[in-house]
Amino acid sequence: MPLAAAAGVEACGTEPPAVVELPEPAFRGAPLEEVIAARRTVRYYSPEPLGLQDLSQILWSAQGITDPDRGMRAAPSAGGTYPVDLYVQPNNVFGLECGVYRYEPVGHRLVLYRAGRFRDAIHEAALGQRWVYTAGAVILFVATPARVAEKYDEASALKSTLLEAGHISQNIYLQATSLGLGVGAIGGFSAEAMGRLLGLGEGQKVVYLNLVGNRR
C-alpha cells in the first residue's frame, strides 16, 4: 500500500495506478560512439509528454535486469548489493499524471510509492531550478549504504554507493541521448526536504536527481 502524500502536497484528481507494467525495451537507439560524442546536459524541455516507452527504455538502461539467471543489472554495483533505488516523479509523462513511483527492476515495472501532486514540492526542494519543473520526469536516486556495509566495511559503503549512482546516471545520459531526448543531472537540492517528501527511513537519503524529457 502506498504511503500517504506528504504535508502540503496536493491530492491527485483521480486515483493513480498502483502498478504500471512498463513496455519491453525496444533497443532502437543510435550507435554508442555517436551517443558519446553527442552527450550533453539539457536544461530546457518541451511541453510534449515523455512517452512511456522511452521512460521504460531509460529505466531499463539505468537498473534493468540484464542477466535474469543471476539477477545482474545494467549498472555495476559493489558485490551486487544494489544500494541505490530509483523513484520517478512524472511531471509530464503520457499516461502518468500524479504520484511518486518506485522502479522495480525485477518485473520491470513502476509501483506507486506515494500518491499526490509532487511537482511543486520537488521543484521547491530542488532550490527552485526551473528545469526540475519542466522536465518530463524527475528520477530520484535514493541511497541505502547499509546494504553495502552488510557485505563490506562501513567505511567504504558510502563511497561505493555514490560510485554506483554515477554509473546509473551515465547509463541514463547515454540512453536518453540515444533516443534523442534531453537529460540533465542535478546535484543541487535539499536532501532533507527530499527525504521528508518521500518519507524516507533512517539511513536512506536522496543523493542525485536525473531529469529526462523531450528537448525544447
TrEMBL record:
Spell out the InterPro entries in the cross-references.
Bacteriocin_Proc_Enz, Nitroreductase, Nitroreductase-like, SagB-type_dehydrogenase
The protein's GO terms of the molecular function aspect are:
oxidoreductase activity
What residues does the Nitroreductase domain cover?
A: 36-213
Identification of the protein by name: SagB-type dehydrogenase family enzyme
